[in-house]
Amino acid sequence: MVLKNGWVLGMSEFVFELRYDLWRLPTFEPNLTYPVHRWFHFKEGFSRDLVEFLIKRMGLEEGNVVLDPFVGSGTTPLTCMELGLDAIGVDASPLMALISFAKTRLYDAEKLIAESERLKSVRFRTHDLSNVSAFVRRAFKPATLQQLLSLRDEVRGIEDRDVSAFFTLALMSAAMRCSYVVKEGSIVKVVKRPVPELLRTFWSKVRQMIDDVRKIELRSGPAEIYMGDAREMKFVGDEAVDAVITSPPYLNKIEYTKVYEIEMELFLGRSRPNLMRSYIGLFPKSNRVPQEAQGLPDSAVAYFVDLEQSLLEVLRVLRRGGRAAFVVSGGVYPSIVVDVDLILARIAKRLGFDVERVLAMGKRVATYERVKRIGESRESVVMLRKS
Prior knowledge:
- By secondary structure, the protein is an alpha/beta fold.
- The protein has two domains: about 20-95 and about 225-255 and about 290-385, Rossmann fold (3-Layer(aba) Sandwich); about 110-215, no CATH class.
- The chain is built from twelve helices and 13 strands.
- It has helices at about 50-60, 75-85, 95-105, 110-120, 135-140, 140-155, 160-175, 200-215, 255-260, 260-270, 300-315, 340-350; strands spanning about 10, 15-20, 65-70, 85-90, 180-185, 185-190, 225, 240-245, 320-330, 330, 335-340, 355-370, 370-385.
- The strands form three sheets. It has a nine-stranded mixed β-sheet. Strands 5-6 form a two-stranded antiparallel ribbon.
- Helix 3 (about 95-105) packs across helix 7 and helix 6 (about 140-155) packs antiparallel against helix 7 (about 160-175).
- The longest helix has 20 residues, at about 300-315.
- It is globular and about 65 Å long.
């Protein structure tokens, strides 16, 4: 039943709030206009505006603790720092943990300027490029790769961990702009074409980031950032957080780690990572299939096995009366669309959560091989409460 205002839909199980006017909020694009948020373009992420919207919707206040167990590029903890909330971020990817850490420090702009002057005086060393994978060698001009490796080594040697993370992120961003890499969805291709010069691009990025440090107003922080598994967060105590704002990897989109394999190899020493042996974390932790996922394609079943374990862990760390928001999207298969929001809500209800409502913010036509229409896929926020 659609109510007279046209945006709340009553269903037999849950209340759906249709807010398709907010379709940009679950996308990363608005972040490109915000200081610090724009330091790394994580196209799989959501916006600062969505986090602020949910914080207000939940009635959170300064000093409350917010957890994001799938922290990605750090949008949730950074927004919390702007609004005066304490934040904890967790991610199974060491790359995402590094990026989130770099974006959620309390920097001294003058200290960053002094370090940049020191780096400008460094003399480059010659590296043996045979130690780099063939794929990475194809992605850069040889001279660019030599400069990149020398700068990377210098940045790694910075004693202050926060400052080292700052310049690592600046170099990572500049390096990809000066590469032959083209990213199309989950596909990473090498396309030879004119590219900018690395040093000029790097110093321009450093100047922009220092300017952002001066512009952004932070009322709390730094955030706590951990590399870890959302299904087993031993570093977070029982009933230790007031709210959870997060987005698990989308079903059908879990291969996103492959898109960042060059960054992983160059800055973390890992080539072609295989983090997604399990859909949510590093290794499978349960083989029991949730009743709500029975009969679905195998990959969807594995996804909900992991998601149930994550929900149980959120239930443990969330205080009584605390609220959680899960941003999810439907999974598209050759013959069906899996309504992830509904299934997640059903699992959460069985585990003991109150399902307050589902905010449907986006929808798209789902097709198979771009020809056969299968249905519609929703992008939603599932709002939960620990009773």
